[in-house]
């Protein structure tokens, strides 16, 4: 091959690479906003699903804006964070669990022996969602997440106004085994959470996901959810995730404060 031919071949290949890179970059930038909006709408759908609010898909944003009051809370103090303290990282409108957990200022390490969700670090701040009707709080939705067998599972759990009774549970992101652990997002299984008691009358955390069948005649059945058939490790992960986030190192202290003054957060 002549030198001129070789140079032309290299030049053409280089031009193709440059043009392709520009096209990919342009597509990435132009679609980023679309993807972020889809993620926001999907999160809204799952908050409403956990809260038991139904409606046509196109109504989700309207229902959310009318019925849901999001509040960012400092889990260390249990106090709401005013919008005047928001910045590029700490912001309820663009809240990123992963980013805050890894941030040295806005994340926190889980005490040794208390990491039931297998996370090592979690945000020191979390958004919670008050479900309103006629100005009254009817339910509160809490984001939860933790490790399964193959992935980190992200979801929401909603408690009724008494902050003891489960209204709904949903997982919106996971990478568990399809047909086994992947059943964490099966509507039929998620519906079994409704009406379960997270805490007893003394405020002790009692809820748990069992690896065995739950005896409906047992007085403790109200605290237990049957695990996923054939998915022992995913079931264990969901159990640890829920117990962590509703326990002393998660939302437990905040829930105690909410029981005393829930309207102080609105």
Tell me what you see in this structure.
The protein is of the alpha+beta class and 266 residues long. The chain has one domain. The protein is 34% helix and 22% strand. The strands form 3 sheets. Strands 2-1-5-6-7-8 form a 6-stranded antiparallel β-sheet. A two-stranded antiparallel ribbon has the order 3-4. It has a two-stranded parallel sheet with strand order 9-10. Helix 1 packs across helix 2. The mean pLDDT is 88.
Please outline the major beta sheet.
6 strands, antiparallel
The count of domains is 1
Number of helices: 6
Order of SSEs, N→C? Answer: HHEEHEEEEEEHEEHH
Radius of gyration using CA atoms only = 23 Å
State the distance separating the first and last CA atoms: 76 Å
SSE class:
alpha+beta
Low-confidence stretches: none
Number of strands: 10
Q: How are the strands of the largest sheet arranged?
A: 2-1-5-6-7-8
Shape: globular
Helix content: 25-40%
Q: Kindly state the mean pLDDT as a whole number?
A: 88
Strand content: 15-25%
């Amino acid at each position: 091959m002549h030198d001129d031919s070789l140079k032309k071949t290299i030049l053409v290949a280089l031009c193709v690479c440059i043009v392709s890179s520009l096209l990919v970059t342009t597509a990435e930038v132009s679609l980023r906003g679309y993807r972020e909006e889809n993620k926001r709408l999907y999160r809204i759908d799952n908050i409403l699903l956990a809260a038991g609010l139904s409606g046509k898909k196109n109504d989700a944003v309207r229902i959310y804006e009318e019925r849901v009051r999001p509040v960012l809370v400092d889990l260390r103090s249990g106090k709401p964070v005013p919008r005047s303290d928001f910045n590029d990282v700490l912001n309820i409108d663009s809240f990123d669990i992963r980013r805050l957990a890894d941030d040295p200022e806005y994340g926190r390490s889980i005490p040794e022996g208390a990491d039931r969700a297998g996370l090592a670090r979690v945000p020191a701040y979390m958004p919670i969602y008050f479900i309103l009707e006629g100005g009254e709080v009817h339910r509160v939705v809490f984001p939860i997440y933790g490790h399964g067998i193959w992935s980190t599972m992200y979801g929401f759990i909603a408690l009724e106004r008494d902050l003891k009774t489960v209204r709904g549970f949903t997982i919106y992101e996971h990478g568990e085994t399809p047909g086994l652990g992947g059943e964490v997002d099966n509507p039929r299984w998620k519906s079994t959470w409704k009406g379960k008691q997270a805490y007893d009358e003394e405020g002790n955390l009692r809820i748990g996901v069992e690896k065995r069948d739950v005896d409906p005649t047992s007085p403790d059945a109200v605290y237990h959810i049957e695990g996923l058939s054939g998915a022992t490790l995913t079931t264990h992960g969901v159990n640890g995730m829920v117990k962590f986030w509703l326990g002393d190192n998660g939302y437990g202290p905040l829930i105690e404060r909410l029981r005393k003054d829930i309207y102080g957060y609105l």
